[in-house]
Amino acid sequence: MKDEDFKALEFIDGRLRVIDQRELPEKLEYMDLSTAEEVSEAIKTMVVRGAPAIGGAAGYGVYFALLEAEGNKSVFERLCAMIRSSRPTAVNLMWAVDRVMRKAAASGYDKEAVLSEASLILEEDRAMNHKLSEIGVSVIRKGDTILTHCNAGALATCGWGTALGVIKEAHYRGMDIHVYADETRPLFQGARLTAWELVRAGIPSTLIPDSAAASLIRDGKIDLIILGADRITANGDVANKLGTFMLSVIAKEYGVPFYSVAPTSTIDFSMRDGKDIPIEERNPDEVRRPGGVLIAPEEIEIYNPAFDVTPHANITGIITEKGIIYPPFDKNIERIRRGEEL
Ligand code: MRU
């Protein structure tokens, strides 16, 4: 186990310092956030992205909201609602805002208590990443070739990563793995962010266009697929970056194990079925002009969903800090909700 020498987010001198992920891989640039609105904007514009990192930033957003509200409860609640609605799919955002707001109410709106709760989210997520890696590495065999999608690494979390953390663990244990990373259109989190983390960590890896995954899987070049999650429903359906569902269908067809890795803060116990997960639709220009370059006629209609839902029937297992959830997912997720052993 080896921590990264960079942090996606860190609280320093009363400000939240985040890596501006829009600038990678060209520049490792930081941005300091100190208001609820700045946190909300950073989440919306994907300066900060990845479900656990969004949750981590949102916790501090609630702290800033409390400072700005100066004792006015309705201003505080309005600012918290603004943060909560910055992006709709990753449930870690709502989970973190609600958790820190609950602490605010329970502590009589004590600033120190609220700040410690926000910091606790970061610390817990860091520790959970390591737990996920220790548990998840058991599904990897020496010499495996692993496909991943989007970025579920240190940039997407408060620690060293969920899916990519498991992969890093296997590498540092000398398991002789090779990683294929999907470029992940249209925002290229795979090419810009995962490839950057893989290169930094010295993990043997290959970047592929998203559409190359199908033939690699068919040709037996992929031993397993490991990726993250933005929201997991009570029946085990998983919302994750657009393209995950397609990969799951191909993996099922060719019998390739398919794992999602996520802390239990990504489970939405209140939602029964993945069909109810709100899927964010983003600006058409992300498809029309990737990197600011026009690649399609201005007039063409564009559909740009940021996520899709993978049905639990296509998933081999969900790796959490409480253990690996296998089918029947609904029963085993209910056991986690009740605090029982898996
Ligand atoms: O739109 P993004 O970049 O926030 O999407 C990120 C993903 O889909 C990740 O796979 C997911 O949040 C898990 S991150 C540990």
Q: What are the salient characteristics of this protein?
A:
342 residues; binds 5-S-methyl-1-O-phosphono-5-thio-D-ribulose; alpha/beta; four-stranded mixed beta sheet; seven-stranded mixed beta sheet
Structural class determined from secondary elements? alpha/beta
* Helix and strand pattern: EEEHHHHHEHEHEHEEEHEEHEEEH
Tertiary shape: globular
Number of strands: 14
Query: Radius of gyration from the CA trace?
Result: 19 Å
Give the terminus-to-terminus CA distance.
25 Å
Numbering strands along the chain, what is their spatial order in the largest sheet? 6-5-4-7-10-13-14
Ligand kinds: 5-S-methyl-1-O-phosphono-5-thio-D-ribulose
- Low-confidence parts: none
Q: Can I get a quick summary?
A:
The protein is an alpha/beta fold and 342 residues long. 39% of the residues lie in helices and 16% in strands.
Characterize the structure shown.
This protein has 342 residues and is α/β, with parallel strands linked by helices. The protein is 39% helix and 16% strand. The chain is built from eleven helices and 14 strands. The strands form three sheets. The chain has a seven-stranded mixed β-sheet, sandwiched between helices. Helix 2 runs parallel beside helix 4 and helix 2 (51-69) packs antiparallel against helix 5 (111-136). The longest helix has 26 residues, at 111-136. The mean pLDDT is 97.
